[in-house]
């Protein structure tokens, strides 16, 4: 099969390797016992993150906000929510993370503000400057029910504001009016926001909802064609202020649009949604072919850019680009109850319960994540196998507090249980008494210590993030083999997605006696060097020596 080049890494391309770890300050660690996580609490856990092997921390929104959409409804882009600390705390966090070799990336939410933001309040009061910061119409446009992001929860994208006497556009919830990207004053403000945080030492931004940021809307509805030039303005601004900072874009778009986001759009990284959805399809069917095809389709990006791979994140596991039958199969395998599904397209569960809490299968999935072409992104708590709380609404099910110990509230906070900002998972096989950091740190064979070992070995294999790669045949549709070459390194990653043992035949690509295990689910001693043994959900990282 054809090989694909990711591109050589340089000092300015730190994002080509390592591990990005996503967390919410609000639910990570509470330092003062008020039931809300905060920046000092996160600072106290930096040694844990460094020991895990994290190279970059992605902070979900921590700005002042009414918190109706988990902080994505922002009222001040230049501050820290008072429950979490202040700007001084943030600067100290960036410095202390840097002392431990970790960078900080923050969420950049440019699509919309909160309806409580002073800009929107001024706009609805008639201020001529701020009125044009948003998108208005005298009548509700005909396309007001098209392109809804949250089916079943959201009914329209245009809502009437009585004070303004007009309709305003909101791609998401009605309390999140969209900013008018066509207004040069708005774009200037966005650049100012980026410059402010870059000056505080961050390493870049995760850009929220990129396609909607650059999708102009007007009084007659959505306008044709995204404005990729606007994105490139942001990249130029960021590069001028901070040469090695990155833009990590959230853009779940069709394959034929990806080149625009990397090229004229200027994103350094994009989340690989196509690969992610096909990872879950491959796991459901124990058939690697859809994943191989997804990887092939997403190859060929610019040399300086990178894919960000993930299994789960803070949103639903979005399966919207799968065929109806394929999505139904993934639901049946990993979210068989309606309460586990969301918006008709996604799954609102965490990684470990999706995989039935089965350690072998969880390890296989995480090993796969670490060896896909690109940079892995891990959602907080997945390193210990946390579960979800389906009693919480929508995506909040997977946004529960970090489970540090078997003590009160899982060690997240000393507050009364009723005072917690979000309930901690306390019951069942994924409750904090059964799943927590302290217990797993003391257990050599725990999932947490497995993740540490896997990340340490991955650091010795930069070819996974930087080299040329190809999918090679194995003779078994349940077994994925990816070969990576970079400088003098030549490595094959094998994964068996089936619940039964398999053998992988790599001939004529590689002879069996020219391979040496560097990491696997157990030590293997292949009696027949022509084929390679794999346990049920087994995985092997092999160095090509001959």
Task: Give a short summary of the structure.
With 546 residues, the chain is α/β, with parallel strands linked by helices.
Give a quick account of the main beta sheet: strands, pairing sense, barrel closure.
8 strands, parallel, barrel
Indicate how many domains the architecture comprises. 3
Could you tell me the strand content as a percent range? 15-25%
Distance between the termini: 20 Å
Task: Give the SSE map.
Layout: E1 4-5, E2 20-23, H1 39-43, H2 46-52, E3 56-59, H3 87-99, E4 103-108, H4 118-124, H5 128-131, E5 136-137, E6 158-161, E7 166-169, H6 184-199, E8 204-207, H7 210-213, E9 217-218, E10 221-222, H8 228-241, E11 246-249, H9 255-262, E12 269-271, H10 273-285, H11 289-297, E13 306-310, E14 317-318, H12 324-334, E15 341-342, E16 346-347, H13 351-354, H14 359-371, E17 375-379, H15 437-441, H16 447-459, H17 463-466, E18 468-471, E19 479-486, E20 489-496, E21 502-504, E22 515-520, E23 532-534, E24 539-544
Parallel strand pairs: 2-3, 2-17, 3-4, 4-8, 8-11, 11-12, 12-13, 13-17
Antiparallel strand pairs: 1-18, 5-7, 6-7, 9-10, 14-16, 15-16, 18-19, 19-20, 20-24, 21-23, 22-24
């Amino acid at each position: 099969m054809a090989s694909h080049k990711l591109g050589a890494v340089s000092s300015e391309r730190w994002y080509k390797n390592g591990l990005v770890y996503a967390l919410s300050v609000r639910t990570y660690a509470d330092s003062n016992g008020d039931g809300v996580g905060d920046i000092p609490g996160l600072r106290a856990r930096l040694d844990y993150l460094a020991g895990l092997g994290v190279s970059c921390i992605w902070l979900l929104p921590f700005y002042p906000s009414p918190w109706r959409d988990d902080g994505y409804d922002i009222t001040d882009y230049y501050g820290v929510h008072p429950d979490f600390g202040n700007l001084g705390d943030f600067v100290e966090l960036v410095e202390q993370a840097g002392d431990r070799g970790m960078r900080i990336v923050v969420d950049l939410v440019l699509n919309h503000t909160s309806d409580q933001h002073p800009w929107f309040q001024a706009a609805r009061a008639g201020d001529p400057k701020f009125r044009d910061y948003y998108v208005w119409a005298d009548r509700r446009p005909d396309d007001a029910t098209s392109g809804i992001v949250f089916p079943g929860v959201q009914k329209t994208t245009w809502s009437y504001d009585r004070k303004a006497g007009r309709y305003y556009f909101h791609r998401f919830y009605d309390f999140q009016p969209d900013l008018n990207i066509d207004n040069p004053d708005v774009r200037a403000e966005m650049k100012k926001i980026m410059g402010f945080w870059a000056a505080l030492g961050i390493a870049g931004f995760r850009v929220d909802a990129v396609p909607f940021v650059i999708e102009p809307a007007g009084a007659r509805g959505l306008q044709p064609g995204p404005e990729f030039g606007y994105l490139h303005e942001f990249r130029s601004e960021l590069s001028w202020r901070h040469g090695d900072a990155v833009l990590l874009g959230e853009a779940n778009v069709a394959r034929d649009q990806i080149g625009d986001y990397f090229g004229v759009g200027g994103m350094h990284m994009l989340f690989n949604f196509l690969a992610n959805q096909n990872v879950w399809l491959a796991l459901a069917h124990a058939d690697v072919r859809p994943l191989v095809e997804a990887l092939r389709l997403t190859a060929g990006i610019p040399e300086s850019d990178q894919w960000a791979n993930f299994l789960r994140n803070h949103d639903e596991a979005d399966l919207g680009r799968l065929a109806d039958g394929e999505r139904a199969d993934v639901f049946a395998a990993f979210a068989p109850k309606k309460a586990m599904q969301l918006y008709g397209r996604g799954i609102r569960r965490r990684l470990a319960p999706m995989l039935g809490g089965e350690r072998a299968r969880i390890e296989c999935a995480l090993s796969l994540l670490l060896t896909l072409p690109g940079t892995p992104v891990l959602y907080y708590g997945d390193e210990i196998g946390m579960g979800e709380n389906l009693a919480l609404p929508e995506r909040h099910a997977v946004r529960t507090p970090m489970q540090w110990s078997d003590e009160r509230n899982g060690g997240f906070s000393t507050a009364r249980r009723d005072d917690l900002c979000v309930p901690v998972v306390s019951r069942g096989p994924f409750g904090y008494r059964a799943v927590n950091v302290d217990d797993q740190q003391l257990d050599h064979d725990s999932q947490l210590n497995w993740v540490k070992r896997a990340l340490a070995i991955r650091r010795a294999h930069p070819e996974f993030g930087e080299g040329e790669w190809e999918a090679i045949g194995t003779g078994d549709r349940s077994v994925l083999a990816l070969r990576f070459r970079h400088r003098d390194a030549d490595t094959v990653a094998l994964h068996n997605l089936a619940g039964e043992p398999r053998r992988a035949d790599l001939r004529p690509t590689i002879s069996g006696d020219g391979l040496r295990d560097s990491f696997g689910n157990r030590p293997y001693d292949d009696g027949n060097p022509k084929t390679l043994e794999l346990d049920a959900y087994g995985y092997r990282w092999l160095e090509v020596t001959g």
